[in-house]
Amino acid sequence: MTNNAKVIVVGNEKGGSGKSTLSIHLAIAYLYSGYKVATIDLDGRQGTLTHYIENRVRYANEKNLDLPMPEHLVVTPSQFSNRRSSNEDEEQLDAEIKDLKTEYDIIIIDTPGTYSHLSNAGHKNADILITPVNDSLVDIDVIANIDPNTKEIISESQYTNNIRNIQKIRKDIGKDDLFWIVLRNRISHIDAKNKREVDNILKKLQTQLGFTYISGIGERVVYREMFLKGLTILDLLKTGTDEITISHIAAKNELLTVLNTINIPLKQDI
Ligand SMILES: Nc1ncnc2c1ncn2[C@@H]1O[C@H](COP(=O)(O)OP(=O)(O)O)[C@@H](O)[C@H]1O
Ligand SMILES: [Mg+2]
Fold it and tell me: Ligand 2 (ion): which residues have CB within 5 A?
């Protein structure tokens, strides 16, 4: 029994912000560091994380590589959408997580880009929530509605509201605070007004909304190229099968910054 198993949820009610890519990178990083890791795909409809892992298994077999693999689970919602089936789905997910916690140190949950009762149930289980946002003002709208002139918060988004409710429930039942990280992803290398504005607004929001802001992961072509092989930056650096560029090293350093912020100490260098 690993009593202090941690659940990391990667969530943002928006598609394309990099949740699945981040989920696999975190999972493989913790595996290389010596932890037992399980992953859960709550976005079974898209199944990006699931396909990523399937590609990884296939590539490892083809190339005879000894790549670390997480224990992977897909949890799909029942086909009925009524209150009873929602509760049953939530109970099933809670039971699966409870079970995984007895054997794994870290459980990483990837979620869909829209609200669903299953995604919400996943969020309720989070010890750590990471919300990747793309380098765009449109993405900030998922967190809060911003006045275009003053750049002040007009209102919190439904997603933020939801997180607040979850934080409140945790407090009421005596659980530790939910550690919420907002991570700026796909930062462009070109200096633009929009880019600085996103940074300024997120800096301001972090104190008001109580998250920790990391700025973040750069826009790098390499992220789009690894999916079909199911590889991560760390595998590329370790296996030495591809040519290593400065962009790979920078990407690893960015990942290390994210891992440092999450604050689960690495057992060994990755
Ligand atoms: N840092 C990055 N640089 C470049 N492309 C990225 C980066 N992170 C993610 N992507 C790409 O963005 C797209 C969406 O990423 P994905 O992880 O599927 O997002 P989500 O799970 O939030 O929908 C994918 O094509 C992915 O390869
Ligand atoms: Mg996804």
Answer: 19-20, 48
